[in-house]
Amino acid sequence: MLTSCNTHDYDGKLRQKWFEMRPILIEKYLPNCLSFDDTIKDIEQWLDKKYYNIKRIGRARRSLRILISNRHSNFDSRNDIDVEELLPILWDKVKNQEDIHDTFYEQLCDITGGSCSQGRSTRLFQFLFLFDLPLEISKIEEEKIETSTEQQSKEKNLPEATSSTTSSTTSIVKEEKTEISTEQELRDKDLSSETSSITPKTEEEKIEISTEQESIKKDLLSETTFNENSASISKENQQLQEKSKSNEEQLYTEEKPKEEQQLDEDQQSQRNQ
């Protein structure tokens, strides 16, 4: 491939190479790198520390702001390169190799002059070839990747199987609950029927007891009234008897002096003769 300073000359031509490199980069290197946001912050600190008074520092800072503010352009659709995957991997290697710091600095400044998706991805992609990265996947690693893929597939299918089993179990439980509920309803119905048949008898017994009690009360009331009347009559008779006796005594008391007076008169008459 002929080299060119125009990044658009590489449109669509980096895709195949990126696809060959990306699996191992994502699998082996990216997990050990900073996140994209933390990478930007780390680069900002690096610029302030090392390139504070260096020419074009303003452009370098502006390039970082472009990467943060226009994130939708960080994906190069023509080469299928995602700068948010690529930059953390590159920075993890660049920051530890001072001999290429200035080169990285210049490329970072140039992003301002070509901030389209291809201008970002192509300038950063070329740095991958400055490092001795083992980009070929060994058989052992291939087996690990295949195992990981199979495991992910199983984990994905497991929720479906679990869901099916859970659904079946739930259905059985619902059926059992329905049967128990039906049996309970029948028992409640029978109990209600028995209670209903017993209740009239109980009510009849209550009415009979109530009637007997009322009859007893009436009889007691009649006896009480009779006794009270008898007592009243007896008292009146006693009063009459006492009154009659008193009259007799009074009459006897009155007649006795007369008899004595008459007797005296008769005796006096006999004496005179």
Provide a concise account of the structure shown:
With 273 residues, the protein is mainly α. 76% of the residues lie in helices and 1% in strands. Residues 162-171 have a biased composition (Low complexity).
What does this structure look like?
The protein has helices at residues 15-29, 36-50, 57-69, 83-94, 101-110, 117-125, 139-272, and strands at 75-76, 81-82. By secondary structure, the chain is mainly α. The protein has a domain at 7-137. A two-stranded antiparallel ribbon has the order 1-2. A hairpin with a 4-residue loop joins strand 1 (75-76) and strand 2. Helix 2 packs antiparallel against helix 3, helix 3 crosses helix 5 and helix 4 runs parallel beside helix 6 (117-125). The protein is rod-shaped. Residues 222-241 have a biased composition (Polar residues). Residues 144-158, 173-192, 201-221, 242-261 have a biased composition (Basic and acidic residues). Residues 162-171 have a biased composition (Low complexity). Residues 144-273 are annotated as: Disordered.
Number of helices, where a helix is a run of at least 4 consecutive DSSP H or I residues = 7
**Structural class, judged by helices and strands?**
mainly alpha
Main sheet characteristics: 2 strands, antiparallel
- The percentage of residues in β strands lies in under 5%
- How many beta-strand runs? 2
Summarize the amount of helix as a percent range: over 70%
- Give the mean pLDDT: 75
Rough outline: rod-shaped
Strand order of the largest sheet: 1-2
Measured between the Cα atoms of the first and last residue, the distance is 207 Å
Task: Give the topology string: H per helix, E per strand.
Answer: HHHEEHHHH
